[in-house]
Specification:
Layout lengths: L15 E6 L2 H12 L15 E4 L4 E6 L4 H6 L5 E5 H7 L3 E6 L5 E8 L10 E5 L2 H9 L5 E5 L6 H4 L5 E6 L3 H5 L2 E10 L1 E6 H6 L1 H18 L1
Parallel strand pairs: 1-3, 1-4, 7-8, 7-9
Antiparallel strand pairs: 2-3, 4-11, 5-11, 6-9, 6-10
Length: about 220
């Protein structure tokens, strides 16, 4: 039976599939993988390819919508992926979280009009892209809420009277200030996390741990 080898008879690295989030965050994440020794030159080319491989480094990359990364990892289409803590808490996928990459730092927060006061006398209307996070947050406070699921321009909801508050990601807070909204409370900090498929971690432990260790070195170098 032929052996899985590279030129010269040395064992080939175990191939790991990596789901990268599309956009600026994904580009920064790939830069970390590249600096850690898991580069794939083809990914820098201007092409319509969907999958990029470097057998010598033992990696296969593909770009997906950020919110889809945990799905690919949880179901085993990818061994490794990178997703924001907000996505992980909203969808609660069955994956292992290995490392905080320290990228894409922001916060999940509750915001409202500057003149808003929650008297607690009626159901609170909450507009958000993250209904599960909103429900858990207010359930912990035993506060009745009406969740209004929106997909964009969350800041408009309290301005137009659609909601009392919003639960959303806040980076600099500039958009809130420009629309006379203020942060009422911060729920949790957000950053990009390295996640892994549970089954892959059992069967590809050495390769995955090697990736995690080298990525940790990149995080420490950036710090």
């Amino acid at each position: 039976m032929p052996r899985n080898t590279t030129t010269g008879g040395a064992p080939a690295p175990q191939m790991l599939s990596v789901a990268l989030p599309k956009g600026r965050l994904g580009e920064k994440v790939y830069g970390m993988f590249e600096a850690a020794g898991y580069g794939c030159p083809a990914i820098r080319e201007n092409s319509r390819r969907l999958i990029f491989e470097n057998p010598a480094a033992g990696v296969r990359y593909f770009w997906v919508k950020p919110s889809d990364v945990p799905i690919y990892v949880e179901r085993g289409a990818a061994d490794i992926g990178v997703a924001g803590k907000d996505i992980l808490l909203e969808y609660n996928p069955e994956v292992y979280e290995l490392l905080d990459l320290g990228l894409g730092r922001c916060r999940m927060a509750v915001a409202a009009r500057q003149d808003f006061h929650d008297s607690g006398e009626r159901t609170l209307r909450v507009a958000t892209k993250f209904p599960e996070i909103a429900r858990q947050h207010y359930a912990a406070r035993c506060r009745d809420i009406d969740v209004i699921k929106l997909n964009g321009s969350i800041e408009l909801a309290p301005i137009l009277g659609l909601s009392d508050v919003i639960v959303d990601i806040v980076e600099t807070g500039t958009t809130l200030r420009e629309n006379n909204l203020v942060v009422l409370e911060e729920i949790f900090p957000i950053s990009a996390r390295l996640i892994v498929n549970q089954s892959a971690f059992r069967f590809k432990t050495a390769g995955i741990e090697a990736v995690a260790e080298k990525m940790k070195e990149q995080v420490e170098t950036d710090d």
